[in-house]
Design a protein that fits this description.
Helix content is 34%, strand content 14%. It has 557 residues and is of the alpha/beta class. A hairpin with a 2-residue loop joins strand 14 and strand 15. It folds into three domains: 311 residues, Alkaline Phosphatase, subunit A (3-Layer(aba) Sandwich), CATH 3.40.720; 107 residues, no CATH class; 75 residues, Arylsulfatase, C-terminal domain. The strands form three sheets. A ten-stranded mixed β-sheet has the order 7-6-5-4-8-1-9-10-2-11, with helices on both faces. The termini are far apart. It binds 2-deoxy-6-O-sulfo-2-(sulfoamino)-alpha-D-glucopyranose and calcium ion. The site of calcium ion has 6 residues, from loops.
Length: 557
């Protein structure tokens, strides 16, 4: 026993050979079970992580995870939007099976999830941060979730069923809560903690200490920032997520003076205007009112610093509005967007570092499977866009880093096709439990243990299905398959169009080759593979299936 106590304590533990560390803390010959820490952000895309080669922002703590673990180059979500992705991660099942197809749904919390399985097996479980599933979390010893999308300043939480408002900045608070859970846990049992940030979700409000940090930075523009959508179909043309046209000056770009922010707006009726005017008036109303509400959560001191930080931007905009061409304005907005988005990432990175340091201090770092991921990727100006939803590369791909030294080699990279539905079976498997047959994802154990190689018989295509239309950003419903080299997409509902991309020759998906005779053979093969995948996962009638009509943006929480 004395020996075991010695083994358990402090930094010496990490330096021990694998066989001994595997035995440390064991009871009756059972190897010590690993802790599980799932770090997830909201809308953090790989293009904004330096370990993925980003030139936009430095993320030293995320880079540390990549350096000491495995970076997945090809991890994809099955439905690129928040609630649905979260439900996929919890259940290891596709949206049409777990029932949470779009953000207006309510998650059936009675179903099987990986935290429940771990909890039943003796893990201490916690869920902290953005939950976004509209029903209470189940299977957790401790939960403290943001209300709906959550707020950046003075956020509201529901903690084990009780409402509370916390002072400060959301990314810091979520980390404080995570550390506090670890401090109060029972150290004789393993923990599984979901540490889920709101950041860097819209409207990208930086912490006080990061206000203005990127003001002198000039961001490289994606070559297709001013995309004209030639070469693709109606879905790409008819979306509502263009930086130039659809970004809200007040809410997204913080272009309201303190006087405007403190004014109460008499909102005139728009009932007799034409449809476009009504839509524009509603957008303006939402933009102004959401920004006022978010701004008013700050203390007077915080507001004062905020006002000072954004004053030059507001002055510049007043001038530019009179002189700049539409393209110049788009380029300017892109720069402001990147300044805020990257400042918000800064707080994520710092807090990831803080949590890693804490785990190291308590001697649990190397015995914890640490995963960093996002609920999906995001457009950072590619195709002129912000937001996500499309099955295009920037948001179908999600970052995935895994650090677990007993199994995962330091600095390894994997090109295996991984998916967000693989996380649940992976955690269950690595905790030593049998993976339930009804989980549709696959355990990544083989990939992790082999330095990133896909094991024999691994999948050669990933399936995707997006449902939330009509809704925010007007991205049409679609489904499809991505293989290592190609992508085939079908947009349906109020349109019936196929697109196909040769990812080797056209990695930015600018020209669909669906109708190109040179690709007829590849196209046939992809159709067959897509149908196989649909049969396998039970989505055999993707357009005909009776989906309860989407209940509208006002129902989205
Ligand atoms: C909010 C945002 C949208 C965003 C959705 C879904 N609008 O509605 O821009 O696409 O969330 O995001 S906002 O005016 O409220 O910022 S998700 O990540 O939760 O799926
Ligand atoms: Ca999201």
């Amino acid at each position: 026993m004395k020996n075991l106590e010695t083994l358990r304590s402090g930094a010496r533990y990490a330096a021990l050979p694998l066989t001994l560390t595997a035995l440390a803390g064991c009871s009756e010959g059972q190897p010590k079970r690993p802790n599980i820490l799932v770090m997830m952000t909201d809308d953090h895309t790989a293009q904004a992580m330096s370990c993925y080669g980003s030139l936009l922002v430095e993320t030293p703590n995320l880079d540390r995870l990549a350096r000491e673990g495995m970076l997945f180059e090809n991890c994809f979500v099955s439905n690129a939007i928040s609630g649905p992705s979260r439900a996929c991660i919890l259940t290891g099942k596709y949206s049409h099976v777990n029932g949470f197809t779009d953000n207006s749904r309510t998650f059936d919390g009675d179903q099987q999830t990986f935290p429940k399985l771990l909890h039943e097996a003796g893990y201490q479980t916690a869920m902290i941060g953005k939950w976004h599933l509209n029903s209470d979390p189940q299977g957790f010893d401790f939960w403290s979730i943001l209300v709906g999308q959550g707020e950046y300043y003075a956020p509201q939480f529901i903690e084990n069923g009780e409402n509370r408002v916390e002072k400060g900045y959301v990314t810091d608070i979520i980390t404080d809560k995570a550390i506090s859970f670890l401090e109060h846990r029972d150290p004789s049992r393993p923990f599984a903690m979901l540490y889920y940030h709101k950041a860097p979700h819209r409207n990208w409000m930086p912490a006080q200490r990061h206000l203005g940090i990127n003001d002198s930075r000039v961001y490289p523009e994606p070559f297709n920032l001013l995309d004209d959508y030639a070469g693709r179909g109606r879905a790409a043309r008819e979306q509502a997520m263009e930086i130039g046209r659809d970004m809200w000056p007040e809410w997204d770009l913080k272009l309201m003076t303190p006087e405007e922010l403190s004014r109460s707006y008499e909102l005139e009726s728009t009932g007799d205007a034409n449809r476009d005017d009504v839509a524009r008036a509603n957008d303006w109303r939402s933009s102004v009112m959401q920004y006022q509400a978010a701004y008013n959560r700050m203390t007077d001191e915080e507001k004062a610093r905020w006002n000072e930080a954004y004053a030059p931007r507001i002055a510049e905009y007043k001038r530019l509005r009179k002189t700049a061409t539409p393209d110049e304005l788009t380029r300017w907005k892109y720069q402001q967007y990147m300044r805020d988005y990257c400042a918000v990432i800064q707080a994520v990175d710092e807090n990831v570092g803080r949590l890693l340091d804490y785990l190291e201090k308590i001697g649990e770092l190397d015995n914890t499977i640490i995963v960093y991921t996002s609920d999906q990727g995001f457009f950072l100006g590619e195709h002129g866009w912000f937001d996500k939803r499309f099955m295009y590369e920037e948001c179908q791909r999600t970052p995935l880093l895994v650090r677990y030294p007993p199994m995962v080699g330091a600095g390894t990279r994997s090109r295996a096709l991984a998916m967000n539905i693989d996380l649940a079976p992976t955690f269950v498997d690595l905790a030593g439990l049998a993976v339930p047959d009804d989980m549709q994802g696959r355990s990544l154990r083989g990939v992790l243990a082999s330095g990133g190689e896909a094991p024999e018989g691994w999948r050669t295509g990933v399936y995707y299905h997006y449902y939330e239309y009509p809704s925010w950003h007007s991205v049409k419903r679609h489904y499809g398959i991505r293989t290592a080299d190609y992508k085939l997409i079908h947009f349906y509902n109020d349109v019936d169009e196929w697109e196909m991309y040769d990812l080797k020759r056209d990695p930015h998906e600018m020209h669909s080759v669906y109708d190109d005779p040179a690709y007829a053979e590849v196209r046939r093969g992809l159709h067959v593979q897509l149908e196989e995948l649909q049969r396998e996962c039970g989505d055999t009638d993707p357009c005909e299936r009776e989906y309860e009509f989407f209940r509208g943006a006002d129902q989205l929480k």
